[in-house]
Amino acid sequence: MADASIENAGLLVVDKDAGLTSHDVVAKCRKAFNTRRVGHAGTLDPMATGVLVIGIERATKLLGLLSLTTKSYTATIRLGQSTTTDDAEGEVMATVDASGVADEEIAAVIATLTGDIEQVPAKVSAIKVDGRRAHTLVRTGAEFELKARPVTVHRFDVLETRRTGEFVDLEVEVDCSSGTYIRSLARDLGAALGVGGHLTTLRRTAVGPFTLEHSRKIGDVIESPGLSLGIDDAAKLCFPHREISDDEAESISQGRWLEPIGMKGVYTVVDPSGQAIALLQEKGRRASSVMVVRPATLR
Description:
The protein is of the alpha+beta class and 299 residues long. The protein has 3 domains: 4-69 and 208-231, Pseudouridine synthase, CATH 3.30.2350; 71-206, Pseudouridine synthase (2-Layer Sandwich); 239-298, Archaeosine Trna-guanine Transglycosylase, Chain: A, domain 4, CATH 2.30.130.10. Helices cover 24% and strands 36% of the residues. The protein has helices at residues 4-7, 22-33, 63-66, 103-112, 134-140, 182-193, 218-223, 231-238, 246-253; strands at 10-16, 38-41, 49-56, 71-79, 81-83, 92-95, 115-119, 128-129, 132-133, 149-164, 167-176, 197-207, 210-211, 229-230, 241-243, 266-270, 276-283, 286-292. The longest helix is centred in the first third of the chain and has 12 residues, at 22-33. It is elongated and about 70 Å long. The N and C termini lie close together (4 Å).
């Protein structure tokens, strides 16, 4: 029989406001839902707005898997100025007249920043350096370098170009893999053009299948707590699913494995009543659980 941790488990899609940290949103959700078991998938910087996926109760275990999905953003990139943080919150390091940069030059550099690339993360990031977060080290004035990491930029489109004095502002849309820094794209675009660049606005419009259309403002959540998706619907929306028998459901809920059927990647197994039992992945002759949604004790 299910308990409250299953009945109240699921995902909440928040449209984060500027000025709030991702942890601020988690703290507000803990209070609203009266539970400590709250987490988020993919940090949004305080200056950024948009989709932040929150896991409640057992659905927090889904979050690490959700973080591997494609994310989408709209952003404004300013060419002609570089900052210490690669965004508008940092100190200006240099200003260079970008008015002579042609649209064709911008397009050519963007093409090199699209596809599978090696990207040096922004120094104001959560990446750890010798056990400490990079953004913490930056504030101490410490000198350090971050290594380039492979990321994928599926789409990097310029929607609008505004030329104001010596600056060029680009309104862009980006679809990318998890771990891609839009600030770093702005920095690298400006550097390659020889004029510097930084991010002035950032809005996340989607994390995997979750978009702004699914989202709620945190003030509304506090006023009327409620999930965007229960754990069953979340598991079935985020991953392919395989129907299994009651006997198979009982087996996998007790930590055993199933026979593989040739499905690739992580998928959800669903019992005859429509309940998500576990997330499985096939390796060799076994389909083993990556996460058990409903252990035998909670069925």
